[in-house]
Amino acid sequence: MRQAVGTTTILKIVLAFTLLFSAFLAVAIVYNKAYKLKNEALSIIEKYEGSPEAFQLIDNYLKNNGYNTTGRCKVGENGRLKSGQGWYFYNDNKLSLKTLYCISHECSNGDCKIGDNNKIYYNIRLFFKFNLPFFGDIFTFSVTGKTKAIQLYAEFQKNV
Fold it and tell me: How many domains in the chain?
């Protein structure tokens, strides 16, 4: 009888360790993918200096890489969401919508005006889900990043 109890305890410990190890692997793999996607999105914004073409390229890149995780943006961020008619930015007052990624910006002088060698920084936030077999989606986390300083040009000021 003592051996049966000991075997059951060891089996529980092995199952618990297997579950924790699987959870760790799942988080590491998904986080790595989200981190890679975030870095590529930042590179695209920097390369195209925040122009509208950059956001179209980011949309295409994420779509081609199978990214479809959604989350809610914070106040002050614009979210990119998919609709039947294409992609568009939504306003801050619709915080209940789930978006594919969130974009915000900040300027070096505090205000986004042309002149005085003003620079702009874009912040991007992508989401990833922690899910396990048989349990489904457990949590949604986000990965954030910030671009290098980008010169604020007059033709792009209307996009900020």
Answer: 1
Q: Do residues 69 and 38 lie in contact, with contact meaning Cβ atoms separated by under 8 Å? A: no
- CB environment 86-111: b (16+ within 10 A), e (fewer): ebeeeeeeeeeeebbbbbbbeeeeee
Contact, 74 vs 102, CB < 8 A?
Answer: yes
CA dihedral 150, 152, 157, 160 (to 10 degrees): 40
Would you say 88 and 81 are in contact if contact means Cβ atoms under 8 Å apart?
yes
Q: What is the pTM of this model?
A: 0.77
pLDDT digits over 13-58, tens only? 999 999 889 878 878 888 898 899 999 999 999 999 888 888 889 9
For 49, the token pair is: 């200096």
Q: How many CA atoms lie within 13 A of 63 on its CB side?
A: 11
Q: How far apart are CA 126 and CA 105, in angstroms?
A: 15
Q: Using CA atoms, how far apart are residues 54 and 43, in angstroms rounded to an integer?
A: 9
Range of the domain at 59: 2-159
The one-letter amino acid at 141:
F
Spatial distance between the Cα atoms of 55 and 84, rounded to a whole number of angstroms: 18
